[in-house]
Design a protein that fits this description.
By secondary structure, the chain is of the alpha+beta class. It is 40% helix and 18% strand. The chain folds into two domains: 94 residues; 231 residues, Bira Bifunctional Protein, Domain 2 (BirA Bifunctional Protein, domain 2, 2-Layer Sandwich). The chain contains twelve helices and nine strands. The chain has a seven-stranded mixed β-sheet, sandwiched between helices. The two termini are 77 Å apart. Bound molecules: 3,4-dihydroxyphenylalanine. The site of 3,4-dihydroxyphenylalanine has 12 residues, from strand 7, strand 8 and strand 9.
Length: 354
Amino acid sequence: MAINKIERVLRDQVTQLTQKLSKITQAEEIYPLRSLYTGKESELQKALGLLKDLPKEERPTAGSLINATKRELEQAISEKLTKLLSEELAAQDAVRDIDVTAPFHVNMPDVPKLPRVGSLHPLQHEINRMLTIFTTMGFTPFEGREVDSDYYVFDSLNMPKEHPARQNWDTFRTEDNLIPTPHTSNMQVRVMRKMKTAPLRAVIYGRVSRNEAIDAVHGHTFYQIEGLYIDKGVSISNMIATINAFVEAFFGRKVTGKVQPGYFPFVEPGIEYMGQCPFCEGAGCGSCKHTGWLELVGAGMIHPSVLREGGFDPAVYSGFAWGLGLDRMVMQRNGIQDIRSLFSSDIRFLSSAV
Ligand code: DAH
Protein backbone atom coordinates (compact mmCIF):
# COMPACT_ATOMS: atom_id res chain seq x y z
CA MET A 1 0.00 0.00 0.00
CA ALA A 2 1.32 3.39 -0.89
CA ILE A 3 1.92 6.03 1.72
CA ASN A 4 -0.95 8.24 0.54
CA LYS A 5 -3.35 5.31 0.85
CA ILE A 6 -2.18 4.72 4.41
CA GLU A 7 -2.65 8.40 5.12
CA ARG A 8 -6.23 8.25 3.82
CA VAL A 9 -7.11 5.20 5.90
CA LEU A 10 -5.74 6.83 9.05
CA ARG A 11 -7.57 10.12 8.42
CA ASP A 12 -10.73 8.11 7.94
CA GLN A 13 -10.19 6.38 11.30
CA VAL A 14 -9.94 9.72 13.08
CA THR A 15 -13.14 10.98 11.42
CA GLN A 16 -15.06 7.78 12.23
CA LEU A 17 -13.99 7.81 15.86
CA THR A 18 -14.79 11.50 16.30
CA GLN A 19 -18.28 10.93 14.93
CA LYS A 20 -18.93 7.93 17.13
CA LEU A 21 -17.63 9.67 20.24
CA SER A 22 -19.92 12.61 19.67
CA LYS A 23 -22.94 10.31 19.97
CA ILE A 24 -21.87 8.53 23.15
CA THR A 25 -23.48 9.52 26.47
CA GLN A 26 -22.17 6.86 28.89
CA ALA A 27 -18.59 6.23 29.88
CA GLU A 28 -18.91 2.47 29.61
CA GLU A 29 -19.69 2.70 25.87
CA ILE A 30 -16.23 4.11 25.24
CA TYR A 31 -14.21 1.06 26.18
CA PRO A 32 -15.16 -1.07 23.15
CA LEU A 33 -14.30 1.89 20.89
CA ARG A 34 -10.88 2.12 22.42
CA SER A 35 -10.02 -1.45 21.41
CA LEU A 36 -11.66 -1.06 17.99
CA TYR A 37 -9.55 1.97 17.06
CA THR A 38 -6.28 1.42 18.94
CA GLY A 39 -6.29 -2.32 19.81
CA LYS A 40 -4.53 -5.25 18.15
CA GLU A 41 -7.04 -5.61 15.32
CA SER A 42 -7.32 -1.89 14.58
CA GLU A 43 -6.47 -0.23 11.25
CA LEU A 44 -3.78 1.64 13.15
CA GLN A 45 -1.96 -1.57 14.07
CA LYS A 46 -2.39 -2.92 10.53
CA ALA A 47 -0.76 0.26 9.16
CA LEU A 48 2.20 -0.33 11.47
CA GLY A 49 2.54 -3.81 10.00
CA LEU A 50 2.65 -2.37 6.49
CA LEU A 51 5.62 -0.10 7.23
CA LYS A 52 8.17 -2.74 6.26
CA ASP A 53 6.69 -3.01 2.75
CA LEU A 54 7.17 0.71 1.99
CA PRO A 55 10.24 2.02 0.16
CA LYS A 56 12.94 2.83 2.71
CA GLU A 57 12.81 6.62 2.22
CA GLU A 58 9.05 6.76 2.87
CA ARG A 59 9.16 4.79 6.10
CA PRO A 60 10.10 7.66 8.51
CA THR A 61 7.28 9.88 7.20
CA ALA A 62 4.78 7.03 7.39
CA GLY A 63 6.03 6.08 10.86
CA SER A 64 5.55 9.55 12.29
CA LEU A 65 2.16 9.81 10.57
CA ILE A 66 1.03 6.61 12.29
CA ASN A 67 2.32 7.81 15.69
CA ALA A 68 0.61 11.18 15.33
CA THR A 69 -2.68 9.46 14.45
CA LYS A 70 -2.34 7.15 17.45
CA ARG A 71 -1.90 10.13 19.79
CA GLU A 72 -4.88 11.86 18.19
CA LEU A 73 -7.15 8.82 18.63
CA GLU A 74 -6.05 8.25 22.23
CA GLN A 75 -6.48 11.87 23.13
CA ALA A 76 -10.00 12.00 21.69
CA ILE A 77 -10.93 8.93 23.70
CA SER A 78 -9.47 10.10 26.99
CA GLU A 79 -10.97 13.61 26.72
CA LYS A 80 -14.42 12.19 26.15
CA LEU A 81 -13.99 9.63 28.93
CA THR A 82 -12.91 12.24 31.47
CA LYS A 83 -15.84 14.43 30.52
CA LEU A 84 -18.43 11.66 30.87
CA LEU A 85 -17.01 10.28 34.13
CA SER A 86 -17.02 13.67 35.81
CA GLU A 87 -20.59 14.29 34.63
CA GLU A 88 -21.68 10.94 36.06
CA LEU A 89 -20.01 11.63 39.40
CA ALA A 90 -21.55 15.07 39.63
CA ALA A 91 -24.99 13.60 38.93
CA GLN A 92 -24.55 10.98 41.70
CA ASP A 93 -23.36 13.57 44.22
CA ALA A 94 -26.33 15.77 43.42
CA VAL A 95 -28.80 13.04 44.50
CA ARG A 96 -26.70 11.57 47.30
CA ASP A 97 -27.28 13.21 50.63
CA ILE A 98 -24.61 11.50 52.69
CA ASP A 99 -25.43 10.65 56.28
CA VAL A 100 -22.01 10.31 57.88
CA THR A 101 -23.45 8.59 60.96
CA ALA A 102 -25.22 5.82 59.04
CA PRO A 103 -23.89 2.34 58.24
CA PHE A 104 -21.95 2.09 54.99
CA HIS A 105 -24.72 0.61 52.83
CA VAL A 106 -27.14 3.44 53.62
CA ASN A 107 -24.92 5.90 51.77
CA MET A 108 -24.17 3.48 48.95
CA PRO A 109 -27.58 2.28 47.75
CA ASP A 110 -26.09 1.04 44.50
CA VAL A 111 -23.65 -1.27 46.31
CA PRO A 112 -25.23 -4.68 47.00
CA LYS A 113 -26.49 -5.10 50.59
CA LEU A 114 -23.93 -6.45 53.03
CA PRO A 115 -24.45 -10.07 54.06
CA ARG A 116 -26.07 -10.68 57.47
CA VAL A 117 -23.51 -9.87 60.12
CA GLY A 118 -23.42 -11.57 63.49
CA SER A 119 -25.68 -13.99 65.31
CA LEU A 120 -26.50 -14.74 68.92
CA HIS A 121 -23.73 -16.44 70.85
CA PRO A 122 -24.61 -20.15 71.34
CA LEU A 123 -24.83 -19.62 75.11
CA GLN A 124 -27.19 -16.66 74.78
CA HIS A 125 -29.27 -18.67 72.34
CA GLU A 126 -29.58 -21.50 74.89
CA ILE A 127 -30.29 -19.12 77.79
CA ASN A 128 -33.17 -17.74 75.73
CA ARG A 129 -34.46 -21.26 74.99
CA MET A 130 -34.27 -22.31 78.64
CA LEU A 131 -36.02 -19.14 79.78
CA THR A 132 -38.75 -19.73 77.23
CA ILE A 133 -39.28 -23.24 78.58
CA PHE A 134 -39.51 -22.00 82.17
CA THR A 135 -41.61 -18.93 81.48
CA THR A 136 -44.04 -21.15 79.58
CA MET A 137 -44.26 -23.17 82.80
CA GLY A 138 -45.15 -20.01 84.72
CA PHE A 139 -41.73 -19.02 86.13
CA THR A 140 -40.74 -15.34 86.23
CA PRO A 141 -37.19 -14.70 84.95
CA PHE A 142 -34.58 -12.72 86.88
CA GLU A 143 -31.02 -11.87 85.97
CA GLY A 144 -28.38 -12.82 88.56
CA ARG A 145 -25.75 -10.58 90.14
CA GLU A 146 -22.17 -11.25 89.22
CA VAL A 147 -20.61 -9.75 92.36
CA ASP A 148 -22.23 -10.12 95.75
CA SER A 149 -21.74 -10.06 99.51
CA ASP A 150 -20.90 -12.90 101.90
CA TYR A 151 -24.41 -12.62 103.20
CA TYR A 152 -26.20 -13.52 99.95
CA VAL A 153 -23.58 -15.97 98.68
CA PHE A 154 -23.28 -17.91 101.96
CA ASP A 155 -25.00 -16.73 105.20
CA SER A 156 -28.50 -16.39 103.74
CA LEU A 157 -28.14 -19.91 102.33
CA ASN A 158 -27.63 -21.57 105.69
CA MET A 159 -23.83 -21.33 105.54
CA PRO A 160 -22.67 -19.12 108.41
CA LYS A 161 -19.00 -18.18 108.78
CA GLU A 162 -16.71 -21.19 109.26
CA HIS A 163 -19.30 -23.54 107.74
CA PRO A 164 -17.18 -26.20 106.02
CA ALA A 165 -19.44 -26.28 102.94
CA ARG A 166 -18.29 -22.79 102.04
CA GLN A 167 -15.17 -24.47 100.71
CA ASN A 168 -17.23 -26.11 97.96
CA TRP A 169 -17.68 -22.67 96.47
CA ASP A 170 -14.27 -21.32 97.38
CA THR A 171 -13.69 -18.53 94.94
CA PHE A 172 -12.19 -15.10 94.30
CA ARG A 173 -12.68 -11.97 96.39
CA THR A 174 -12.34 -8.32 95.58
CA GLU A 175 -10.24 -6.02 97.78
CA ASP A 176 -13.34 -4.78 99.59
CA ASN A 177 -14.36 -8.37 100.30
CA LEU A 178 -17.07 -8.83 97.69
CA ILE A 179 -17.36 -12.13 95.87
CA PRO A 180 -17.69 -12.77 92.14
CA THR A 181 -20.53 -15.13 92.87
CA PRO A 182 -19.75 -18.86 92.53
CA HIS A 183 -23.41 -19.84 92.05
CA THR A 184 -26.74 -18.26 91.18
CA SER A 185 -28.15 -19.45 94.53
CA ASN A 186 -27.09 -16.02 95.87
CA MET A 187 -30.31 -14.74 94.31
CA GLN A 188 -32.66 -17.04 96.24
CA VAL A 189 -33.33 -14.92 99.31
CA ARG A 190 -33.29 -11.70 97.26
CA VAL A 191 -35.96 -13.02 94.93
CA MET A 192 -38.07 -14.34 97.83
CA ARG A 193 -37.98 -10.93 99.48
CA LYS A 194 -38.86 -9.23 96.23
CA MET A 195 -41.75 -11.47 95.19
CA LYS A 196 -43.04 -11.86 98.77
CA THR A 197 -46.14 -13.95 98.01
CA ALA A 198 -46.79 -17.59 97.18
CA PRO A 199 -47.13 -19.26 94.80
CA LEU A 200 -43.65 -18.04 93.93
CA ARG A 201 -42.13 -19.31 90.71
CA ALA A 202 -38.84 -17.74 89.63
CA VAL A 203 -36.02 -18.65 87.30
CA ILE A 204 -32.65 -16.91 87.56
CA TYR A 205 -29.94 -16.91 84.93
CA GLY A 206 -26.47 -15.61 85.56
CA ARG A 207 -22.74 -15.84 85.14
CA VAL A 208 -20.72 -17.38 87.94
CA SER A 209 -17.01 -17.62 88.77
CA ARG A 210 -15.02 -20.43 90.33
CA ASN A 211 -11.45 -20.86 91.40
CA GLU A 212 -10.87 -23.64 88.84
CA ALA A 213 -7.96 -24.80 86.74
CA ILE A 214 -9.18 -24.63 83.15
CA ASP A 215 -9.43 -27.70 80.96
CA ALA A 216 -11.77 -29.13 78.33
CA VAL A 217 -14.66 -29.48 80.79
CA HIS A 218 -13.91 -26.85 83.45
CA GLY A 219 -14.00 -23.09 83.11
CA HIS A 220 -13.46 -20.42 85.76
CA THR A 221 -16.50 -18.59 84.39
CA PHE A 222 -19.72 -20.24 83.30
CA TYR A 223 -23.48 -19.85 83.40
CA GLN A 224 -26.12 -21.27 85.71
CA ILE A 225 -29.88 -21.39 85.66
CA GLU A 226 -31.44 -21.44 89.10
CA GLY A 227 -35.07 -21.96 90.00
CA LEU A 228 -37.39 -21.53 92.94
CA TYR A 229 -40.89 -22.77 93.54
CA ILE A 230 -42.63 -22.00 96.83
CA ASP A 231 -46.23 -22.67 97.78
CA LYS A 232 -48.31 -24.56 100.31
CA GLY A 233 -47.88 -28.31 100.00
CA VAL A 234 -45.08 -28.46 97.41
CA SER A 235 -43.56 -31.93 97.39
CA ILE A 236 -40.48 -33.76 96.16
CA SER A 237 -42.51 -35.35 93.39
CA ASN A 238 -43.51 -31.88 92.14
CA MET A 239 -39.81 -31.07 92.03
CA ILE A 240 -38.81 -34.17 90.09
CA ALA A 241 -41.71 -33.78 87.66
CA THR A 242 -40.80 -30.13 87.02
CA ILE A 243 -37.14 -30.87 86.43
CA ASN A 244 -38.01 -33.80 84.19
CA ALA A 245 -40.42 -31.72 82.12
CA PHE A 246 -37.72 -29.10 81.64
CA VAL A 247 -34.99 -31.60 80.71
CA GLU A 248 -37.23 -33.23 78.10
CA ALA A 249 -38.17 -29.87 76.61
CA PHE A 250 -34.51 -28.85 76.51
CA PHE A 251 -33.26 -31.99 74.77
CA GLY A 252 -36.41 -32.27 72.70
CA ARG A 253 -36.86 -35.98 73.49
CA LYS A 254 -38.00 -38.32 76.20
CA VAL A 255 -35.49 -38.54 79.05
CA THR A 256 -35.54 -41.12 81.82
CA GLY A 257 -34.49 -39.44 85.05
CA LYS A 258 -33.23 -40.70 88.37
CA VAL A 259 -32.27 -38.95 91.56
CA GLN A 260 -29.48 -39.65 94.00
CA PRO A 261 -28.76 -37.92 97.28
CA GLY A 262 -26.65 -34.78 97.06
CA TYR A 263 -25.48 -32.41 99.76
CA PHE A 264 -26.24 -28.71 99.49
CA PRO A 265 -26.63 -26.77 102.78
CA PHE A 266 -29.55 -24.70 101.46
CA VAL A 267 -31.84 -27.67 100.81
CA GLU A 268 -33.08 -30.62 102.84
CA PRO A 269 -33.16 -33.21 101.40
CA GLY A 270 -30.75 -32.41 98.55
CA ILE A 271 -30.57 -34.42 95.37
CA GLU A 272 -28.71 -34.71 92.14
CA TYR A 273 -30.94 -35.30 89.17
CA MET A 274 -29.40 -37.53 86.52
CA GLY A 275 -30.87 -38.00 83.08
CA GLN A 276 -30.34 -41.14 81.07
CA CYS A 277 -28.19 -40.00 78.17
CA PRO A 278 -30.70 -39.09 75.45
CA PHE A 279 -28.08 -39.58 72.73
CA CYS A 280 -27.18 -43.24 73.34
CA GLU A 281 -30.20 -44.11 75.52
CA GLY A 282 -27.92 -45.32 78.27
CA ALA A 283 -25.57 -47.43 76.15
CA GLY A 284 -22.63 -45.06 76.72
CA CYS A 285 -21.23 -42.47 74.35
CA GLY A 286 -19.00 -39.37 74.22
CA SER A 287 -21.73 -37.06 75.56
CA CYS A 288 -22.18 -39.06 78.80
CA LYS A 289 -18.50 -40.01 79.17
CA HIS A 290 -19.59 -43.61 78.55
CA THR A 291 -21.56 -43.85 81.80
CA GLY A 292 -25.03 -43.81 80.20
CA TRP A 293 -26.09 -40.93 82.51
CA LEU A 294 -25.78 -37.16 82.48
CA GLU A 295 -25.46 -35.31 85.79
CA LEU A 296 -27.80 -32.47 85.02
CA VAL A 297 -29.26 -30.63 87.98
CA GLY A 298 -28.54 -30.07 91.67
CA ALA A 299 -31.77 -29.55 93.58
CA GLY A 300 -33.69 -30.08 96.79
CA MET A 301 -36.47 -28.96 99.10
CA ILE A 302 -35.65 -25.47 100.34
CA HIS A 303 -34.18 -25.57 103.84
CA PRO A 304 -36.52 -24.10 106.52
CA SER A 305 -33.94 -21.54 107.57
CA VAL A 306 -33.59 -20.28 103.97
CA LEU A 307 -37.39 -19.99 103.65
CA ARG A 308 -37.47 -18.05 106.90
CA GLU A 309 -34.63 -15.79 105.75
CA GLY A 310 -36.65 -15.02 102.62
CA GLY A 311 -39.77 -14.18 104.63
CA PHE A 312 -41.75 -17.42 104.20
CA ASP A 313 -42.95 -19.36 107.25
CA PRO A 314 -41.65 -22.94 106.87
CA ALA A 315 -44.57 -24.20 108.96
CA VAL A 316 -46.94 -23.04 106.21
CA TYR A 317 -44.89 -23.12 103.02
CA SER A 318 -42.55 -25.54 101.35
CA GLY A 319 -40.72 -25.34 98.09
CA PHE A 320 -37.93 -26.60 95.92
CA ALA A 321 -34.90 -25.02 94.34
CA TRP A 322 -32.50 -26.17 91.67
CA GLY A 323 -29.33 -25.05 89.95
CA LEU A 324 -27.91 -26.29 86.68
CA GLY A 325 -24.78 -25.60 84.66
CA LEU A 326 -25.81 -24.16 81.35
CA ASP A 327 -22.51 -24.60 79.50
CA ARG A 328 -22.35 -28.33 80.23
CA MET A 329 -25.89 -28.88 78.93
CA VAL A 330 -25.21 -26.80 75.82
CA MET A 331 -22.11 -28.91 75.18
CA GLN A 332 -24.05 -32.14 75.62
CA ARG A 333 -26.89 -31.04 73.38
CA ASN A 334 -24.57 -29.90 70.62
CA GLY A 335 -21.82 -32.51 70.96
CA ILE A 336 -19.22 -29.83 71.83
CA GLN A 337 -16.08 -31.43 73.25
CA ASP A 338 -14.23 -28.46 74.70
CA ILE A 339 -15.80 -25.78 76.92
CA ARG A 340 -13.11 -23.35 75.78
CA SER A 341 -14.61 -23.17 72.30
CA LEU A 342 -17.59 -21.36 73.86
CA PHE A 343 -15.25 -18.54 74.81
CA SER A 344 -13.23 -18.48 71.62
CA SER A 345 -13.88 -15.94 68.93
CA ASP A 346 -13.83 -18.47 66.09
CA ILE A 347 -16.71 -17.31 63.95
CA ARG A 348 -17.07 -20.73 62.25
CA PHE A 349 -17.73 -22.33 65.62
CA LEU A 350 -19.90 -19.53 66.96
CA SER A 351 -22.23 -19.55 64.00
CA SER A 352 -22.52 -23.33 63.65
CA ALA A 353 -22.88 -24.56 67.22
CA VAL A 354 -26.60 -24.25 67.68
N1 DAH B 1 -25.66 -23.83 93.86
C1 DAH B 1 -25.33 -25.19 93.54
C2 DAH B 1 -24.00 -25.24 92.82
O1 DAH B 1 -23.59 -24.26 92.27
C3 DAH B 1 -26.41 -25.82 92.68
C4 DAH B 1 -27.68 -25.98 93.41
C5 DAH B 1 -27.93 -27.16 94.12
C6 DAH B 1 -28.64 -24.98 93.44
C7 DAH B 1 -29.10 -27.35 94.78
C8 DAH B 1 -29.84 -25.15 94.13
C9 DAH B 1 -30.05 -26.36 94.81
O2 DAH B 1 -30.79 -24.24 94.16
O3 DAH B 1 -31.22 -26.50 95.45
O4 DAH B 1 -23.38 -26.26 92.78
